């Protein structure tokens, strides 16, 4: 899907930006990384639960066997009792406990490396005692580290390297013969390299698939002509960010933007030229809403809207000023305009602190009334109304139309 899309046409999409700029990276912007981890955990949960359950049973069985076999608290038995048994049971408990998968991922990263090192130590001692076949269990653990434990690639590499290095050190300390040491380390090294290579490609593929899927969903919320979000997506986003603003006590600004004398433009130049002008203006508007909680949308016809999250009054004023200048600097000829020889815009800005007893509709109405004021003042400019105007606003009674 993404190969057929010009990702540069969606500068306000964080998903398109990641697909375009990150390429082979296995890390996204923080807000997207959190989204991806949630999706990742849902996807891997069945295999993680299966593997950790099996590993806990095996860890318990091997620990009991070691205690019975040795009957003394030697290094092998202590390793099973203090590391292998508790870590394998902890991982299984986290994976199977309801609502603890996110906790699992944080704790599994260090525990996987610790568990791998302990198992490698035990296997090396068994190999030194003539049980070379136990290398198979270590190879299986390496594979599981990359594909069954639900670890991210970097954590899997660290855990895998811990297994390989711990085995090599323990094998040297246990007087494993040189030919067997070289063969076993070579085998484990090959398994590690294979797991890392495939694991990298798998995670990279999943990450791109996640971004492509989210972009596809996002495209359904976009206006077909301009590429900006449509009215429905704007309303839903405003409702969400309104709640976020109340939680974080942040200010919220709504900019309603109208192309001046656009009906005259269509009448004079034709609707095809009008569509081209809408696309050019919308491309400029999109560049002013690139932060994660901001949004630019086609509000209807020749009207556009921007939601800006947590900006000071002077910053919002600066955006409105630069936006007016940027559109006029396109120098799109407009013979029918009464305020400029080129296409211009008028902007009404409503800026307020969301309150629990008010709704987003009030802030939208404030911006709408302010847009009316900007048009009344001669167009090709902007007007800002802030908290004072918002607090006395009577939602549902459009005051500007009566003035």
Automatic annotation (TrEMBL):
This is diguanylate cyclase. Its EC number is 2.7.7.65. It is an enzyme of class 2 (transferase). Keywords: Membrane, Transmembrane, Transmembrane helix. CDD domains: GGDEF (cd01949). The chain crosses the membrane at residues 50-69, 75-96, 108-129, 180-200. GO terms for biological process: cell adhesion involved in single-species biofilm formation; negative regulation of bacterial-type flagellum-dependent cell motility. Residues 250-387 form the GGDEF domain. It catalyses: 2 GTP = 3',3'-c-di-GMP + 2 diphosphate. One of its GO terms (molecular function) is diguanylate cyclase activity. One of its GO terms (cellular component) is plasma membrane. SUPFAM superfamilies: Nucleotide cyclase (SSF55073). Signal peptide: none annotated. It holds the Pfam family GGDEF. InterPro entries: Diguanylate_Cyclase (IPR050469), GGDEF_dom (IPR000160), Nucleotide_cyclase (IPR029787), Rev_trsase/Diguanyl_cyclase (IPR043128). Its cofactor is Mg(2+).
């Amino acid at each position: 899907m993404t190969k057929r899309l010009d990702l540069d046409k969606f500068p306000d999409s964080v998903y398109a930006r990641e697909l375009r700029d990150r390429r082979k990276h296995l890390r996204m912007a923080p807000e997207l990384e959190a989204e991806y981890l949630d999706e990742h955990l849902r996807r891997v949960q069945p295999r993680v639960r299966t593997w950790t359950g099996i590993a806990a049973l095996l860890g318990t069985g091997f620990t009991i066997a070691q205690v019975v076999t040795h009957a003394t608290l030697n290094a092998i038995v202590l390793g099973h009792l203090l590391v292998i048994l508790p870590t394998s049971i902890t991982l299984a408990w986290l994976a199977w406990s309801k609502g603890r998968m996110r906790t699992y991922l944080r704790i599994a990263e260090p525990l996987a490396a610790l568990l791998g090192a302990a198992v490698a130590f035990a296997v090396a001692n068994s190999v030194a005692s003539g049980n070379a076949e136990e290398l198979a269990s270590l190879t299986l653990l390496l594979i599981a580290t990359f594909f069954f434990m639900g670890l991210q690639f970097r954590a899997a590499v660290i855990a895998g390297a811990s297994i390989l290095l711990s085995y090599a050190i323990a094998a040297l300390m246990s007087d494993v013969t040189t030919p067997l040491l070289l063969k076993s380390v070579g085998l484990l090294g090959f398994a590690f390299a294979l797991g890392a290579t495939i694991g990298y490609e798998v995670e990279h593929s999943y990450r791109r698939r996640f971004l492509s899927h989210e972009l596809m969903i996002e495209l359904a919320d976009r206006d077909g002509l301009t590429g900006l979000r449509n009215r429905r997506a704007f309303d839903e986003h405003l409702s969400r960010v309104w709640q976020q603003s109340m939680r974080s006590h942040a200010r919220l600004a709504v900019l309603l933007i109208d192309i001046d004398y656009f009906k005259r433009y269509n009448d004079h130049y034709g609707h095809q030229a009008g569509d081209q002008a809408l696309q050019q203006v919308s491309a400029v508007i999109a560049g002013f809403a690139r932060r994660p909680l901001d949004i630019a949308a086609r509000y209807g016809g020749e009207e556009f809207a921007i939601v800006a999250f947590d900006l000071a009054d002077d910053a919002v004023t600066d955006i409105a000023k630069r936006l007016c200048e940027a559109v006029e600097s396109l120098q799109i000829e407009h013979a029918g305009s009464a305020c400029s020889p080129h296409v211009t815009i008028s902007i009404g800005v409503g800026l307020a602190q969301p309150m629990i007893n008010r709704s987003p509709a009030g802030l939208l109405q404030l911006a709408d009334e302010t847009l009316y004021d900007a048009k009344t003042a001669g167009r090709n400019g902007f007007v800002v109304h802030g908290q004072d105007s918002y607090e006395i606003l009577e939602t549902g009674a459009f005051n500007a139309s009566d003035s």
